[in-house]
Amino acid sequence: MFPRLLGGLSLAVLAALSVYFLFFRANPRDTLVAAMEAALSETEGFATSVTLDQCDLQIDRRGVAPASQSLSIARLRANLTDYHTHSVNLRPLNDGRMVLTLQRKSLSEASVQNGVQLLRHLPPAMDTPDPNTLTLMPENGLTTKIRPLAQPASKMSRADVETLLRQPNGTLSFRLGVLIPENPEDIKPHKDAPAFHQFAHAVLADAALREYSVQLAYLGSDAVAEALLIGGLVAPPDVQFVLPSEEDAKALAQVLLRYVSKTCRRS
Hints:
By secondary structure, this protein is an alpha+beta fold. It has one domain (11-120, 176-263). Helix content is 28%, strand content 30%. The chain is built from six helices and eleven strands. The strands form three sheets. It has a six-stranded antiparallel sheet with strand order 1-2-3-9-10-8. The protein has a three-stranded antiparallel sheet with strand order 4-5-11, covered by helices on one side. Helix 2 (28-39) packs antiparallel against helix 6 (246-263). The protein is globular. 30% of the residues are buried.
């Protein structure tokens, strides 16, 4: 997931989009970008941007939380040709909000190549055959299985990457966490923070990578390698929006599916 990237899409915003489309004849791309921008949460101190080049979607979020003065950086890149054109998944949350998730098609060659390219940026400090986490999401809940890699990630062949990604909900997933002490002021970054910082920023700088999600949270207001507290990198990513109601989710889904069905059919 791309947590808390997204927020409310109000009826007023939807009405404004409808008026804009009818009277100013906005093209479908502009309509979709406006709808997604309206759906993203507006949080004090954070800037969010949405870009859409044909079917290549990029959502960026960056800011310093006023309370903690900690920097957060997030990016989602996805190619909409990899998602179904006829339906989305809607899942209610306990607080009444609705999670909208695009449904992925079968694995594409481009997604496999994206995974191969991404692994080339893995620094030596992270390139070990330690156990990896495979997450499966059946209808009745969340199941996690730990499976060891047979070899360092840098030694994985294209066939190895494809086999991994073809598993149910298979992804290349990398996580960095930290234990929270009783006194939050005593929190210290993990020893692997510099390596994860290097890896994530190499991925962010590679324009050839077409699908991934990155989330980074730093101790302090600067992106310093030794101050990275939390990190997440997943490829291919989930494209998700969290909206205040089912009505809002369905409205955004309609705009999304209309654009994807007309512009992003896989050949």
